[in-house]
From TrEMBL:
One Gene Ontology CC term in the entry: cytosol
GO molecular function, one term: O-acyltransferase activity
Keywords for this protein: Acyltransferase, Repeat, Transferase
InterPro entries, sorted: Hexapep (IPR001451), Hexapep_transf_CS (IPR018357), Hexapeptide_acetyltransf (IPR051159), Trimer_LpxA-like_sf (IPR011004)
A Pfam family it matches: Hexapep
Name by which UniProt lists this protein: Acyltransferase
Amino acid sequence: MPRNSDTFSFPSPSAWWQRALHRAVHRLWYGVQSAGAVTAERPGRLRFRGIGPGTRLAFPQGTVFGEPWIELGEHCVIAEQVTLTAGMMPGLDLGPDPVLSLGDGVVIGRGSHIVADARVTIGRETFCGPYVYITSTNHSYDDPGTPVGKQWPRSAPVTIGPGCWLGTGAVVLPGARLGRNVVVAAGAVVRGEVPDHSVVAGAPARTVRSWDPERGWEPPLRTPPPVPIPDGITPEQLLALAEWEERGEG
């Protein structure tokens, strides 16, 4: 029988219950995430060598051990499920010096791993996309008669300069030395030395663009530079401008 258009339809009690449960679960999870985040004021069980003000490790955290040899600068953002380890296993005495250091303003994307057996240093304001893997240790395969996983690994320090950007799924291998403001393309596998102001891509990663003080970017950029936001503009003004452009009034 067709429904009368003037008849109102009311949700069943089960629908009301499902919506209420949905809201309650999300509210509870938000509370758990807030309570479980690690900061300098609320380190929980983690006792880092240093954790600067404004730094936050989102909950749930990934594997974290060797905290007495891990230094986190100020205003770092560590997303969910990020692994931070110093040493090959928990409970080792790694000496008097830090093993893993993050500078101020470093951002580490969700699901990333930083595994520091030898020294790993990440410069200030370096941003990493999700699922980036940075390690100072790699498996060796010298003995063809022994399973690779049972052979003693090789380690070499890793240095990532300030202002770099590492795309989703990038891998940085032992001994890598990245300069200032380096761009690592998504999925690239980096080893060796990368000069300042370079763009690298591929596996193994190769330089695909670099900056020359006289000629600029070589090869030239294919897109125009973004227009900077004027000082003093408010978020409300930005939203109004976006709506104005969508209506074709620009």
